[in-house]
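Technical note accompanying the year-one report. For the benefit of new consortium partners, we illustrate the data format agreed upon in the data management plan: each record pairs a sequence with a C-alpha cell string. No post-processing was applied to the example shown here.
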Amino acid sequence: MMKIIKTSLFIFALLMVSASCSRKLNDNSNQQEPQISLSDSYKNHFFIGAAISEDQILEKDNRSLSIVRNQYNTITPENALKWMFLQPSPNKFEFDLADKYVEFGLNNDMHIVGHTLVWHSQLADFMNEVTDKTIMSNYVSNHINTIVKRYKGKIDTWDVVNEALNEDGTLRESIFLKTLGENYIIDAFKLAEKGDPNAELAYNDYNLCNPKKREGALRLIENLQKENAKINAVGIQAHWKLNTPSINEIEKSIIAYAGLGVKLMFTELDISVLPNPWEVVGAAVEQNFDKFIGDPKMNPYPERLPDSMLQKQAKRYEDIFELFLKHEDKISRITFWGVTDKTSWLNDWPIKERTNYPLLFDRNYQPKQAYQSILDLKK
C-alpha cells in the first residue's frame, strides 16, 4: 500500500511540473528578459542606450523599463525636453516630466542625454509667431539658460542644435535662421557651455552620411570651432534602411567627422524594413503621406515579419556594429530610437497605421535575431 501511495505522489508531482512548464512555454507574458546585457558587453567600447517615452518615464510600461534598466547605460528622452513640452508659453516652464526623466537616469547610474535645446520642429506656438530679433534672442537665451542650469551636473550630453541643415548642406530656412541670422547656432552653443561648462555639447541631424549634407555639417562644425564655441560631438541620427546608407558611406563619415576632433554619436538608430514613398527626405517629422494609408504595398507585414526579413535585419545590424567596433576609438555613444517595435515612431511615419519592426525587441518585449547578432560580435 505504501509503495502505491509513493508512486501516485511521484506521478502527481511529475504532472504538476509538466503543467507548469507548459504554462511557461505558452504564456509570453511570463517570458524573461535576456540575462546578457548589451551595455555590459560593450562597456569597454561605447555607451549603448535607448530613447524613452513619456509612458516609460512615468513607469506606465514597466516591461519596457525593465529592458532599459537591464540592457542600456544611457537614455535620451523622445519628447520630454523639447520646447513645446518644457516651455509651452513665454517664461512658463513645466519641468515635472523632465525632472522624472533625469531622476530615472540618476537612480539607474546612466549617461543622461538632453534632447534638444534649439530645433525648428515641436516648438511652442508662441515661438513661431515671433518676428522681432531682440525678442527671439531673449526667448532663446532664457530657454537655454534656464534648462541647462537646472540640470547642471546631471545631464551629461546636450543636443544643442537639432536638424539645422538642408539636404544640400546649406542652412535650413528655420524660424531661427530667418529671425536671428546664421550666428544663432554659435550663440546657442556658447550659451549651453556657459550654463554647464562640463556638459558634452553636440550637433544632431539626420542624413549626415550623405555626401552633400556631410560636407555642410563639416563646415558647421569648423565654423563653431573657428568661433571658439565648444562642440564635443556630432550626433548622426541613424534612421536607416536595410540597404542604405552603405557601410562605405557610414565609414567615410566616421573618419571625416573624427578628423575635426569631435566624437561620433549614433543617436537615433533604427532599421526600417518597410518601403517609403520616393518623396520622403531623411527623417523630418513634418512629412506626411496619408494618401498611402491602407496601401498594402506600403504595409507588407501587418501581422508579423517573415523570418527571411528578420535575418536580413539582423545581418544589417551586425554589419553596422562591426563597423562601430572597428572605429570604437572615434565613437562615444550608440542610442536606439525606442525600446520595442510596439512603440516605435516608425509605425506611424511617414504613413500612419503601418506595422514596422525597426528595433531589437519585438512587440512581446522579446529579443529579436538582431539583438543576438549584436551580442554575438562580442562573444
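Partners are asked to follow this layout when depositing records. Residues 34-376 form a domain with the TIM Barrel fold (CATH 3.20.20.80).
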